[in-house]
Amino acid sequence: MAFEASAECQNRELFRSLTFVGCVSPSTMLLQFGTGLYIIQLRNVLKELFYQTLIFSFGNFGSFKLAESGANLLELLQLAGLESENESGLLWDANGIVWQKAEGFRFPVAALELLESQAAMLNDYFSLQIARPDGAEQGADGLRHLALVTLPSIIDGYTPQMEGLPALALSLVNDVDWEEEEACFDSVCRALAEFFVIKEEFCDGDRLSGLEEGGAPWLAVIRDLLVPRVKSHLVPPDSLRDGTSRLADLHDLYKVFERC
Q1: CB contact at 8 A, 260 and 50
Q2: Highest taxon of the source (predicted)?
Q3: Per-residue pLDDT of the chain (260 residues; tens, 9 = 90+)
Q4: What residue spans define the domains of the chain?
């Protein structure tokens, strides 16, 4: 694995032996390693953790269901802001994906057809179930009912922020290389890893999400669930050094306190 080859021993030891100190925000963490106090961009660390978890557990995920009928993919793609209209009545996004008008509403035919055509693979390998509900029309008319029904459960007890579903749907359409097998699997893993990362803009005060009443506190999720997983499973690539800064040496701080 590329991330294994790029992981330096010192970098591995830092993440394996860290002591959690606290969080400045949902995206920034303080930790102690030896006598050093470090500040780390948590987003980068979690994205790498989720990506590696997806790679190592490839094809062997649990899943959880999104409500009874799932999340409508047409609505997710519209929330992601793909569409722009031209004079012909067709709709195009910035990447040239064609949208059409039908029965007074707009829907992204090519994008939805693409996701439906890959539904079996996404379900088999990633526990991403995409399906039309029972009784939905066949052909293009039924595409407006296409739904994302399940998501992979990659870390027990961790539920991602559902506010990120529109961006995930858009990423599956725009960012996945569907032509080459290895690149396809890798880019799906990266799209999912980005979705699972905790995003500060979706937090509601001290809660992980504003969508569910009484959502879990983000600090507890990071401290009790994700940091232990980082310590036990992450193989840190060299790129994580860019988001890691040493703030102080605790030995020097003790000397300052002794003089006070």
Answers
A1: no
A2: Eukaryota
A3: 554 544 467 788 889 999 999 999 999 999 999 888 999 999 999 999 999 999 999 888 899 999 878 999 988 988 887 654 444 444 545 554 555 544 433 457 788 989 999 999 999 999 999 998 877 777 667 788 899 999 999 999 999 999 999 999 999 998 999 999 999 999 999 999 999 999 999 999 999 987 765 579 999 999 999 999 999 999 999 888 888 888 888 666 555 555 55
A4: 1-59+213-259, 62-83+92-153+162-197
Q: Are 33 and 19 in contact (CB under 8 A)?
A: yes
Interatomic CA distance for residues 152 and 61, integer angstroms: 6
> What radius of gyration do the chain's Cα atoms show?
21
| pTM for this predicted structure | 0.83
Q: Check if the beta carbon of residue 45 is closer than 8 Å to that of residue 16.
A: no
Look up residue 181 and give its amino acid: E
Measured CA to CA, the distance from residue 46 to residue 208 in angstroms comes to 15
Token readout for 156 is 């027990």
Say if residues 58 and 128 touch (Cβ distance below 8 Å): no
**CATH dotted code for 1-59+213-259:** 3.30.1540
Task: Give the CA dihedral 153, 119, 168, 171, nearest 10 degrees.
Answer: 140
In 10 A of CB 126, how many CB atoms?
23
